[in-house]
Specification:
alpha/beta, Spore Coat Polysaccharide Biosynthesis Protein SpsA, Chain A, five-stranded mixed beta barrel, two-stranded antiparallel sheet, 33% helix, binds uridine 5'-triphosphate
């Protein structure tokens, strides 16, 4: 029987060392793009794709994310007293339904595979999504919605993929391609962070996945891979050959907001995409380019 993708895991236990000192006491996922934290973009993308349960795998110093999705009684009262009804409505609209956000902790940052594994009992025996909030995608149709459609067609595992320059393969999980129809790519192997000379292709995985529950038996082994971390890519690679496994060339532009320049660029792109900010943002950019 076909099972709907109802749950999404947000692994947010990483250290965010590329963004120090900003991430010393604040989670990287609370960095803002224009006026919303990264985690809110990810939750909204998941909700738009039909996700009903949001599982955040957090760690030390990450409790501001829990506060962000809580009801702000004192602030709400003050906004009400001051007649700031639009701001109050905005805060109420962004709250997920009661009981639909679940938090668990990854006690040690042992790797992305380990962070996902921490959610095993909360997900259980059904297909689920994984979203890395520091990857943000700007486009007409949310990336995860495109992936859910691909999953409904294949009933298999789906990873979002994009081409990168060969010298960048060391930063990503890379596809060994079996067949490529342009949009959907069937996969015969996956390699985490290969040297450019060894990379089987330049088609790489970004932070969006739809995975079948078969992944749990592979993650259970806690095998360490690249960088001594328990890698999600290695567990995914073990599933190839069983149920279908595809990469989806998604529509949209991905920004790596875990990286300083990627985050700065994303702020400009998201401001330009906002009707209330685009003209002023263009003026600012013009002033900088004429310096
Ligand atoms: P990154 O590779 O971006 O690592 O993790 P990081 O620690 O967050 O950041 P840098 O590289 O030190 O700056 C990719 C994703 O996996 C999660 C991160 O939170 C991020 O969403 N992750 C990584 C965990 O949840 N736990 C881990 O042990 C490692």
């Amino acid at each position: 029987m076909k099972k709907k993708v109802r749950k999404a895991v947000f692994p947010v236990g990483g250290l965010g060392t590329r963004f120090l000192p900003a991430t010393k006491a604040m989670p990287k996922e609370m960095l803002t793009l224009v006026d919303k934290p990264l985690i809110q973009y990810a939750i909204e993308e998941a909700a738009a794709a039909g996700i009903e349960e949001f599982i955040l795998v957090t760690s030390r110093a990450k409790s501001s994310m829990e506060d962000h999705f809580d009801y702000p009684y004192e602030l709400a009262k003050t906004l009400e007293e001051r007649g700031k009804t639009a701001e109050l409505a905005l805060l109420e609209k962004m709250l997920p339904a009661a009981g639909r956000v679940v938090y668990t902790r990854q006690q040690k940052p042992l790797g992305l595979g380990h962070a996902v594994w921490c959610a095993r009992d909360l997900v259980g025996d059904e297909p689920f999504a994984v979203l890395l909030p520091d990857d943000v995608i700007l486009g007409d149709k949310p990336c995860l919605s495109q992936m859910v459609e691909a999953h409904e067609a294949t009933q298999g595992n789906i990873v979002a993929v994009m081409e990168v320059p060969r010298e960048h393969t060391k930063r990503y999980g890379v596809l060994d391609i079996a067949e490529d129809n342009g949009k959907l790519v069937s996969v015969k192997g996956l390699v985490e962070k290969p040297d450019p000379k060894d990379a089987p292709s330049t088609l790489t995985i970004i932070g969006r996945y739809i995975l079948l529950p078969e992944i749990w038996s592979h993650l259970d082994r806690h095998e360490k891979g690249a960088g001594g971390e328990i890698q999600l890519t290695d567990a995914m690679a073990k599933m190839i050959g069983g149920k279908p496994f595809h990469g989806l060339r998604f529509e949209g532009t991905r920004y790596d907001c875990g990286d300083k320049l990627g985050w700065l660029e994303a702020n400009i792109a998201f401001a330009l995409a906002r009707p209330d900010l685009a003209d002023s943002m263009r003026d600012i950019l013009r002033r900088f380019s004429s310096r």
